[in-house]
Every structure is written in C-alpha cells, then in structure tokens.
Design brief:
Blueprint: E1 14-15, H1 20-26, E2 39-42, E3 46-49, H2 53-79, H3 83-99, H4 110-120, H5 129-139, H6 142-168, E4 175-178, E5 183-188, E6 191-196, E7 201-205, E8 208-216, E9 223-231, H7 241-257, E10 268-269, H8 286-295, H9 300-306, E11 310-312
Parallel strand pairs: 9-11
Antiparallel strand pairs: 1-7, 2-3, 2-10, 3-4, 4-5, 5-6, 6-8, 7-8, 8-9
Helix pairs in contact: 2-6, 3-4, 4-5
Length: 314
C-alpha cells in the first residue's frame, strides 16, 4: 500500500478515508489480549490512543534534562576562578620579580607575567571580579573567558527549559474514537478538537501518526485544522509506512466491527504513563463543545489538504 509519506517536510494532510478500502483489503487485523501501542483502551464504544509525548518524555526529555543540568554545573565549577589561589600567585610572582630584579633582562616573558600579576590585585592587594577581568584582558583571554560563560549559560538555560517542561507539562489527553457516533475527539490545553471519522485528516512521517481534527481557536473564537502530532507505534522516531500501517488498520477495524476485531477480552485498559504530576483536564462544557466543533466543519477537509497544518506537539 503506497500512501503519501514525505517525511518531516509533509505539511498538508489527506483524509484517512482515502485509503480505507486498501486497508480493508490488504491488512488483516488480529484480535489480541494486548493490542499494542499506541492503543490505551478499548471497550464497546470507544478506542483511545495515547500521544507520543507519553513515551518521549521519559525516553528523551528526562535524559536531556539531566545532561543539560549536570554538564553546565560541572563546566561552571571548572570555569569559576579561584580568587584565593590567583591572589597568592600574584603576590608570589611580584615578590619573585623583586628578588630577581638584577636578572630581569634575562627572564623571558617577565613583563607580560608582571603586568598580569599587577592587574590581578587591587589597591588592597586582593583579587576581585573587576581585577580578574582586567587581568584576563591584559592576558588577551577576556573574550574566550566570557564566551565560555555564555556557552555554559546557554546549556543551563536549555536545562531549565527541560525542567519546566518536565514539571509543568501535563500528560496529554488521549485521542478518542467513538464508534457509536463515528467521531474522533480530544483536547489540548483547554481547546477542544473533533471531527467525523470519515473527515479526519492524516499525516504520516518519521515521528509517527499525526491526526488532524477541527480545533477551537484561542478563546474559543472560530475553528481551524490542527494536528495531534507524533502518535508513535512503540518506537520513538524514524517511523516507516510499515510501522504506521497496522495501528491505523486496528483503528479502522474497531470503527467497522467493534472491539472484537481488536481485542480478545471484554475490554482493555493500559496503565498510564508514569511520573506525570498532573493530566490535561477535560474542558468545561465538553460535550457541547465537541458538537460545536463537528457542526463547524465547513471546508475543514479542503483546508487541511491545501494549507500547512500546525501541530499540537508540546
């Protein structure tokens, strides 16, 4: 089965229904006790999928958070000057030059070292940040010293962003496939998205399955197509068409034939992803807002086929 698969540069979607007949003819869905990722739950009416962030968070965000926290701290410790040792060094050098004054002309680089030592000390004979930077300028290394500080700060800033993402980003709401009503819906950060199953958009790329729904704009004023990005299939990235085919076939089989086409038991529920402090709460007046998004369909399909589709990734 050849579907459009242009990788991360794919910006427009196609209706999933475009390939339904091929899925039905070419992919055999086998009912299982565990229907595999990204399926989270299955019952008589609804099948739900988790987003890729559920697994990416612990596999990528947390390791990067640790790297960009401890690496810059170690680099900062190594970069931070020891004023006490610099002060001791400056006094020793000046005393040495005073004692070796008769032989000054034979000492290679003595002038540079003396200038550096004198620049290190203030009028009280102490090293401060001001005198240390002055000495670095005399030494010709002030620019590299400040560049190192900026580099460490940028690494630390990335670490802080990762920590904020880890602590503040809630666990995404699942994507709901309602077989009874033949609709798909979810929500992100207070905004509701929904579409009729036969109108739902699809983008497949290296990050996985991306589903396009009709989402509310900010402040619930109007609607526009938006993708739920990176629904992975048990691997973090580098998805091929073969990786995304079977999960999509499972969704279609459930919507066509019900839970018995996907699972062997009466229902299925996967344990939620761990270490999230909170989940994205269901918005108020949810059912009414789902219905409003469905009624506002308009040229929804035409829009996501002809325009760049933004995504809810983070």
């Amino acid at each position: 089965m050849k579907r459009r698969f242009w990788g991360i540069f794919t910006t427009k979607a196609q209706p999933f229904s475009k390939w339904w007949q091929e899925f039905r003819a070419e992919v055999a869905v086998i009912p299982m006790e565990d229907p595999l990722d990204p399926i989270v739950s299955v019952d008589d009416r609804v099948l739900t999928l988790r987003t890729g962030y559920h697994s990416l968070r612990n596999a990528i965000i947390v390791p990067l958070m640790m790297v960009f926290t401890f690496m810059p701290l170690y680099m900062f410790y190594d970069w931070l000057p020891n004023f006490e040792s610099r002060q001791e060094y400056a006094h020793e050098m000046l005393e040495h030059f005073e004692q070796q004054k008769p032989f000054r002309d034979t000492m290679y680089g003595a002038d540079e070292v003396e200038k550096y030592a004198r620049a290190l000390l203030n009028e009280e004979g102490e090293v401060t940040w001001a005198t240390y930077l002055r000495a670095k300028e005399v030494e010709g290394k002030l620019e590299s010293f400040l560049t190192s500080f900026l580099l460490i700060s940028s690494f630390l800033l990335v670490g802080i962003v990762m920590w904020l993402l880890f602590l503040l980003k809630p666990r995404d709401a699942e994507v709901y496939f309602d077989r009874q009503r033949k609709i798909v819906y979810s929500w992100r950060h207070g905004r509701v998205g929904a579409a009729y199953f036969d109108k739902m958009g699809l983008i497949e790329n290296q990050v996985g399955i991306n589903l396009v729904l009709q989402f509310e704009n900010k402040k619930q004023k109007g609607y526009h197509p938006m993708a739920i990005v990176g629904i992975d299939t048990g691997k973090l990235t580098f998805h091929s068409e073969a990786d995304t085919t079977y999960p999509l076939a499972q969704i279609l089989a459930f919507m066509d034939h019900g839970k018995n086409a996907v699972i062997t038991g009466p229902s299925f529920k996967r344990k939620p992803a761990k270490f999230f402090w909170r989940i994205d709460p269901k918005p108020d007046n949810f059912e009414q807002r789902v219905n409003a998004a469905l009624e506002a369909e308009g040229d929804f399909v035409h829009q996501y086929q002809t325009r760049w589709v933004k995504g809810h990734a983070i």
